[in-house]
Amino acid sequence: MMKIAVCFKIIADYDRMSPKDWAWDEHHIVDTRFVRRIFNCFEESALEMALKLSRPVENPSDKAELTALTIDDEKGDLFLKHLIAVGYDHGVRICCSRELDLRFNPMGISRLISAYIRQMGQTLVILGMQGGEGDNGQTGFLVAEQLGWPCVREVTEAIRTESPEFLKVTSRIDGASLVQIIKLPMVLIIGHSQESPYLRIPNLKQKLDAKKKQVTLLSEHELKVNNKIWFNTDKTLIDLQRQKTNQSCIFLEGKTARDQAQQLYNQYLKKRLPT
Amino acid sequence: MTLTRQAIVDHLIDIAGQDRVITDEQVLKENSHDRYKKLETIFGIYTTPIPAAVVKLADTKQVSDVLKFLNENKVNSVARTGGTATEGGLETIVENSVVLDGSQMNQIIKIDSTNMQATAQCGVNLGELEDRLREQGFTTGHSPQSKPLANMGGLVATRSIGQFSTLYGGIEDMVIGLEAVFPNGEITRIKNVPRRACGPDIRHVIIGNEGALCYITEVTVKIYKYFPENNQFLAWALDDMSLGFKILREVMVEGYRPSVARLYDAEDGSQHSFDQFAADKCVLMFMAEGNEYLANATARGIARVVEKYEECQPIDGRLIENWFDNLNWGPEKIAQERELIRKTQHMAYTTEVSGNWDCINTIYENAIKRIREQYPHMDDLTMLGGHSSHSYQTGTNLYFVYDYDVKDCKPEEEINKYHIALNALIVEETLKAGGSMVHHHGIGKYRTPWTRQEHGSAYYILKGLKDQYDPNGIMNTGTIYPVE
Lengths: 275, 484
Known about the structure:
The complex is a heterodimer of chains A (275) and B (484).
Chain A: E1 3-8, E2 10-12, E3 37-39, H1 41-54, E4 65-71, H2 76-86, E5 90-94, H3 106-120, E6 124-128, H4 139-147, E7 151-160, E8 166-173, E9 176-183, E10 186-190, H5 204-212, E11 216-218, H6 257-269
Parallel strand pairs in A: 1-4, 1-6, 4-5, 5-11, 6-10, 7-10
Antiparallel strand pairs in A: 2-3, 7-8, 8-9
Helix pairs in contact in A: 2-5, 3-4
Chain B: H1 5-16, E1 21-22, H2 25-30, H3 38-42, E2 53-56, H4 60-72, E3 77-80, E4 98-101, E5 108-112, E6 117-121, H5 126-135, E7 138-139, H6 152-157, H7 165-168, H8 171-174, E8 175-181, E9 187-190, H9 203-206, E10 215-222, E11 224-225, E12 232-238, H10 241-253, E13 260-264, H11 266-270, E14 282-288, H12 292-307, E15 313-315, H13 317-324, H14 331-344, E16 346-356, H15 360-374, E17 381-388, E18 395-405, H16 411-433, H17 451-455, H18 459-469
């Protein structure tokens, strides 16, 4: 049976932060405790894609075993329960010692993930291409490297083939689509999915049932990733700066919408249209 | 003799000019509905008759001329400004209806800081009026979620209410005077005075008429000093709604007037991510505002009331403030919602009712219980809950919220299978317990089966208004008044 692990990250909904909220303390930690947390967008796509992959419409009984894996504190359990409610077989949370700062540490995170994958004998790992914090875009590649598995980035679709050992994987490369038949095991890094990027929503009964199920907790010690050197990075966080995203704007004058549209056309659109 | 579609259009062009009479098919389709039939319109299905024309009205005189023509020829009209109605009130259910679009009557006529009032044409967007007022240190105090899109005429026509209503009241408490045009072309102005005892308050013939009696062209509302820097958010988690209603009542009866007073059940709260800080709990929240003395006194007084109840666990007010700052629905959220529905066929609807303190919990419990026990498609529901968001000395409202995955039906069948069926159960339980079936969305076209029951013997008065002002029945047929 194919065993799929989807690694996801829960992040603060940065769209809900106003400029005044972007303040940090002496450890360069932005206080986001008052902002709701959401699935990182690429991983939301990955989670939904894995659900479809694990329950093929044409053969629903041919299920794969699905695990949702996150590295988080106890707040992550709510999201894991949600995933169990929509059909994940297992929700696993790796809870590290508080002194480990994993914010900008793809090496440390990838070691934890690959240790879990090895321990549980997973055959397919799916991750999002970037997290909202750090934006390093490295974790998936590092996981593949540590596992010694093939890795495909910018994956937009993954479907089963007639052989249970292979997947048909579509990815984007240089603006084109690449379709490959790849043998398991492998690591897939999800970019902009062709499928719905939205994770399905459980019904009331599924939510109630999921509440009764347990999330599996693991520490870095249980995964035998307890050498602090493995969490060292070659990066030191020196400072944080908020990117300025101000854009200039011009108000179109004109009494009516027609006048304004005409001005928009004359002054801005006409010269950009092909002659 | 009934005019043909083309004859209606030709006459309208004679009155309003070619530029103001729109007959583009897509525009007509978009003007045949509001936010009630979301799914079918997202999939390009329009099951209501397409209007003959949309008239972009220029001024009050033109409104009068157009209405007079429609009245003389018994052509149905549908008044429209921002188009954010949610109860089907803007649907053109009669063949060859004419949509009277007041969105271009969009001048802020006067901001009077001595008499503390602002006068605006019907097509003025509330958000723009608020922005203008706030630049000068004032506010209308009106802040419905639709503020970025809704216009003054529509807000008054539907008896809208805003998120700060517990302090400022509903739109009916804000409107001082109005200008409206009746179907016979009569232009009426109700003057702006603080109060008077000169017969019944005729403002209320116009406020909430939903385009079924007259066309609102101008509105004057109260304005208030604006002190956002003094806003204080308070919140608590608690186990059940009945305790929440009890505390809400106590806060109101003690005389406190927070601008926001809300109570969410655990299920409804979870879709606002309240489960991230109050899992499986109800959430009770308040916002105190005003000048610093008032804001401080209100916040302290409310805290004193709530903290008597040991079951209430305090929540960091910043969580609520951040959530509240992101609550409004602008065009981008509407577009996002439509995209989400298109991709997932997952819908969310509400039914808002009200009741006195002695029956509100009964309404809440009975409606939820009845849906759980009797609604045949419970497995498709992904959320069923509710909240109270507008409280009064005598009672509060209840906003039932239900989300569902559309399964095994065509887009045009969805509304009957889900929203109409669920809405009916809630309305029936509310009326049975003595509450009101509509708190602030208006009756529209889909709660008319219960209009008579809602008003009881007072339906005589309501019916009399229609008979008097719209004897030809050309004002938004099927809205408020059931089609005979």
